[in-house]
Amino acid sequence: MIPNHSVSLDDHAEIETRADKPEEACGVFGIYAPGEDVAKLTYFGLYALQHRGQESAGIATFAGEQVHLHKDMGLVSHVFNESTLSKLPGNLAVGHTRYSTTGSSRKVNAQPAVVDTRLGSIALAHNGNLVNTGHLREELLKSKCNLVTTTDSEMIAFAIAEEINAGADWLEGCIRAFNRCQGAFSLVIGTPTGVMGVRDPNGIRPLVIGTLGENPVRYVLASETCGLDIIGADYLRDVEPGELVWITEDGLASFPWSQQPQKKLCIFEMIYFARPDSMMNDETLYSYRLRLGRRLAEESAVEADIVFGVPDSGVPAAIGFSQASGIPYAEGLIKNRYVGRTFIQPTQMMRESGIKMKLNPLKDVLYGKRVVIVDDSIVRGTTSRKLVKTLRDAGVVEVHMRISSPPVTHPCFYGIDTDTQDQLIAATKSVEEIAKQLEVDSLAYLSWKGMLEATREDTNSFCSACFTGDYPTSIPEALKGSKLILEKAAV
Ligand code: SF4
């Protein structure tokens, strides 16, 4: 019989799916389009990139030398309205949506970061994290830079200003500054004369170029292709690792600035962060995630009645798992799509009656079934455990959990918030121990090889350091010590 009581969770009535996931750093957007409403186009670009950061949003426009800036805490749709956008005139714009990975979540840390130089202002929007901020900060403070925020993004802007004020032109000054930076940086930089798009020598965070219209061609930069689609721009190509593109009234010019560029795109962008409708390597990420699920089914088959994904990010892999295994796909959990972050605690009565704020099980679908539940990753494991209990309370008889990525054993230093190493469940526990802790009947992760081979790209062209500890840049000892807790303890 299907239980007719509401399923109660332990202490907390809600299932916080995102809180137990790596958090994305930022989304960036830039446009050079004289004669168009660049602020409004940037607003929609950021709206499409909202999944990359929900804490603050900002847009800077340039009308000649004059820079106009509006930024605040909150979602893109809360920060801007017709009135604020109408006060942002100009020919070009840069925009940013932020999740704080360095610097606390405060308005002053919202981007774009605007800094004055000898040649005029720059407005800089950054996705990624630098790993040499300690050193860079010391250098900048020595030369009496007036750092007002706590972000590495502002340090990049000040390093550019410092080079320009020492006599360099825009290009030379920027390239000199980028050579002082180590780590992950995909940047969009507005100046009075044009917009720049830049990627670090490893191209860890994505950045794409699009075109808008034909005569004349307008150029757009965005973290993902979904930021182009929303304004009707066509994808042209990626900004390459170690490349600077400079978009002015003369069109788009390319300047490779790094001596040793290599492609090391964050594999987690492919598995989970980027929107499934964004294109990478000539296909949607939905298609890649389907293949992850198929490979997962081949590697860790199991007998079950239905398979479903943890909404939304686990769904494509679950469909792939179903296709390869022949186990019927079904919806097992429904996500409340209108729930944002809430700071209001549920009432005691809500807790007791078990109202789910984010995910609700479909009890009649689940009752009496052996289920395969597919998720894209496990970080701390707290959410997965609650989820398993919810399924059992709904009458599921066997829970087989399948994860479409390998165990996360190392922290990220490149702009993804994955906690310190000791917080990562797979850093301290075996797969068997994790299965026991989550109270599942079986647990299997996708192999590292399987994850990379499913890209159908050169398997060396990705960063997968959070699964291996093999970071594509050197990590300064002081920074390592702050996150690689277990390695430190082992020394
Ligand atoms: S360490 Fe992991 S999350 Fe960070 S950039 Fe590399 S693959 Fe991405």
Automatic annotation (TrEMBL):
Active site: 26 (nucleophile)
PANTHER family tied to this protein: AMIDOPHOSPHORIBOSYLTRANSFERASE (PTHR11907)
Protein name: Amidophosphoribosyltransferase
Function summary: Catalyzes the formation of phosphoribosylamine from phosphoribosylpyrophosphate (PRPP) and glutamine.
Enzyme class name: transferase
Pfam families: GATase_6, Pribosyltran
HAMAP family: PurF
Cofactor (UniProt): Mg(2+); [4Fe-4S] cluster
Domain of life according to the entry: Bacteria
Residues annotated as binding Mg(2+): 313, 375-376
GO molecular function, a single term: magnesium ion binding
Binding positions for [4Fe-4S] cluster per the UniProt entry: 266, 412, 463, 466
The species this protein was found in: Hassallia byssoidea VB512170
CDD domains per UniProt: GPATase_N (cd00715), PRTases_typeI (cd06223)
Substrates-to-products reaction catalysed: 5-phospho-beta-D-ribosylamine + L-glutamate + diphosphate = 5-phospho-alpha-D-ribose 1-diphosphate + L-glutamine + H2O
Pathway(s) annotated for this protein in UniProt: Purine metabolism; IMP biosynthesis via de novo pathway; N(1)-(5-phospho-D-ribosyl)glycinamide from 5-phospho-alpha-D-ribose 1-diphosphate: step 1/2
The keyword Iron-sulfur appears for this protein: yes
Domain Glutamine amidotransferase type-2 residues, every copy: 26-250
Family statement drawn from the similarity comment of this UniProt entry: In the C-terminal section; belongs to the purine/pyrimidine phosphoribosyltransferase family.
Protein encoded by which gene: purF
Assigned keywords, A-Z: 4Fe-4S, Glutamine amidotransferase, Glycosyltransferase, Iron, Iron-sulfur, Magnesium, Metal-binding, Purine biosynthesis, Transferase
InterPro entries, per database record: GATase_2_dom, Ntn_hydrolases_N, PRTase-like, PRTase_dom, PurF, PurF_N
GO biological process, one term: purine nucleobase biosynthetic process
